[in-house]
Amino acid sequence: MPWIQLRIHSNSEHADALSDLLMELGSVSITFEDGKDTPIFEPKLGETPLWADTVVVALFDAGTDLAPVITELQQQLPFLQEQFNYKIEQIEDKDWVREWMDNFHPIQFGQRLWICPSWREIPDPNAVNVILDPGLAFGTGTHPTTALCLQWLDSLELRDKEVIDFGCGSGILAVAALKLGAKSAIGIDIDYQAIDASRDNATRNQVVDRLSLYLPQDQPKGIQADVLVANILAGPLRELAPQIASLVKPAGKLALSGLLNEQAEELREIYSEWFTMDAPAHKEDWSRLTGVRKSL
Ligand SMILES: C[S@@+](CC[C@H](N)C(=O)[O-])C[C@H]1O[C@@H](n2cnc3c(N)ncnc32)[C@H](O)[C@@H]1O
Q1: Which of 9, 19, 207, 268 has the fewest beta carbons closer than 10 A?
Q2: DSSP string of 42-55?
Q3: Model-level pTM?
Q4: Interface pTM (ipTM) of the complex?
Q5: What count of other Cβ atoms lies within 10 Å of the Cβ of residue 87?
Q6: Pocket of ligand 1 (CB under 6 A)
């Protein structure tokens, strides 16, 4: 079904009122967009901050007459009487899943490792190929934070090693580690959809018998790994530092990802209590920290 879209330039103060009224007036979905390029990377738990310049995008059935909607908005919302900057657009109907699938291609990381979407042909059958369908979880390899971890895993000798993937998402890092030769892996995530996606991807890659998956509350006490990779944001990495450190064996290796370049130095200092830390590696706005666990 084709759609018609009303884009209204607004701000953080008025966006919610606009959204409520647009829903009352028949919009089938509302999206808030960044009106300028001001990304919000780490909202606090329970907070949904909006941009100072917020574009409210309301979707309607293509047959909707938007003229009465616009009159109603102006009459009911006094702030629109001063400035009402809007645009109406026709939206062609697309199969968005199909579109996303068409744009996701095999990618190589480091020397040996390829991530191949499960619906594509494998470019190099002799490489270490992870066949991936992320499902509803994060982790395709296209995001710089995941790419930095995959490159790091590819650079390690993982034979006979036990690996923890903390914040496993699609399971991409745990499965990659197993296919690169790790003896076993543990994936931990707060999201049960990530646990499901990780299990599916491990099955797809015939490594499910070497992967254990846990929600944090079910995680066995006292587990420790030779290699731990955690691609979560700086906030949880800061808060969970003692817990993450305790999951790594003496002389074990650590990689932290999901932090912005300007957050790397602070995180490096925190983790220096337990690890001998390397200089950060960067990709676009993102940094990866690596280190080796001290024998305390
Ligand atoms: C950025 S994704 C990373 C997914 C995948 N490992 C990758 O590198 O692409 C972060 C994942 O960490 C999970 N996560 C966030 N906070 C967590 C926590 N405190 N404990 C465990 N998992 C967490 C999220 O549910 C999400 O699946």
Answers
A1: 9
A2: -PPTT-----SEEE
A3: 0.80
A4: 0.99
A5: 11
A6: 137-139, 145-146, 149, 165, 167-169, 172-173, 188-191, 194, 216, 231-232, 236, 258
